[in-house]
Amino acid sequence: MQRVTKRSGVSRRSLIAGLAACMPLLATSAAHSQSHLATPVLPGAPDARPATVTVSGGAIQVDGQPFAVRGVAGDGPLAVLPGLGATTVRSYGEDPGPLLDEAGKLGLKVIAGLWVGQPRQGADYTDPAFRTRQLAELEAVVTKYREHPALLMWGIGNEVEVELADGSAVWPEIEDVAAMVARVDPAHPPLAVLAETGTDKVEKLRKAAPSIRVLGLNSYGDALPSVVERARRQGWEGPIIITELGALGQWQAAHAPWGAPFEPSSTQKAIQLRRYLPALEEQGAGAIVFLWGQKQEVTPSWHSLLLPDGVWLEAAEAMAQAWGGQPPGGNQAPRIASLRVAGDPSAPFAAWAADEEGAFTLDAVEPDGDLMEVRWFVMAESVDRGVGGDPEQVPKLFPDAVRQSGPSGARVSDLKPGAYRVFVELRDGKGAGATANMPFEVR
């Protein structure tokens, strides 16, 4: 998916134990592989120099040493990432200079995105002038940043093939850009990013773009455990990086009768990531978690790993456990056991008449015993649904709809008929938070 704008408290020990039982232990192989990573040299050090990145079978090496791609995509603060065990940050197509500088100071490597225009957004690959101009612009970027010490590889495009009945026009363009990268910067391999494997997309890319050395795949939810195997079945033998991954895509979720998809809580998302990340590591695939930042896509929280003020969610703990790191200060994020309809705890959504009110109950815990700040709010259900993650308008906020609220629930009223969501955000005052929401309808 195209995921970002381009260019331009009381402790309940039994509850904690129950939640912990749902969280698989870190795979042994992941812990073992951490010790084999190349030691980063910070760009400010006297011996900082451009790295030589090579592909050896299905593995990536930096200056001859194995390198595990573990990281994030997004524009959130980077300082916490090395402590989580992350090694890499991915960009999409904006000027990579500031990111390279910031990441390099932290010892992180960057997959620098080269934005290849998408036909569904107006890119015309039957126009030679457009192709020539785009290639020249991308070559200028590669030439400018090819010697940056933080550069890992070049990420060519992002789901350029999405929404195309016939993608034959885009494969030659990806090859042209990859061949240019190989010529201008042979020290950093080109990677192409596809939206999942499809039935034959990997095979088509492999045959039409032989200059691509690393395969990037955006994959979500329960498609993740099998994505590497599916790519191998289509003949891909080189390194594979899951260039976007998350607990669940909105297109995979169950829906309310009026079409609103059910978003997992931050705790549910973290539980899933504790499954997916070790599984990918065992298969030798790199992992880029989406999105290190905050972004409206169906909701402001669906793919966001951070709250708007930079507070990190439990997903960061899942990343640290998989990658041999620790969350900041060893802090643990609040856990949300459930957000339910009061009086009907099995209901997946709520509905009431306009002259009535709705009530919701919250069951949450702070594992470290910190006092939690709880915020409730109501937003309209999103009607601006972008394709492939295109930018969306943030739905209207109804600040007066929450009449009563607290750490165990909220009451909502005084809304016109329509579709809405109630959100709850928790903060522990030490940089960590949690979030959940539920769709409801006023009739």
From TrEMBL:
InterPro entries per UniProt: GH
Sorted keywords for this record are: Signal
Q: Give the top-rank taxon of the lineage listed in the UniProt record for this protein.
A: Bacteria
Please indicate if the UniProt record lists Signal as a keyword.
yes
Q: Which residues form the signal peptide?
A: 1-33
Name used for this protein in its record: Glycosyl hydrolase
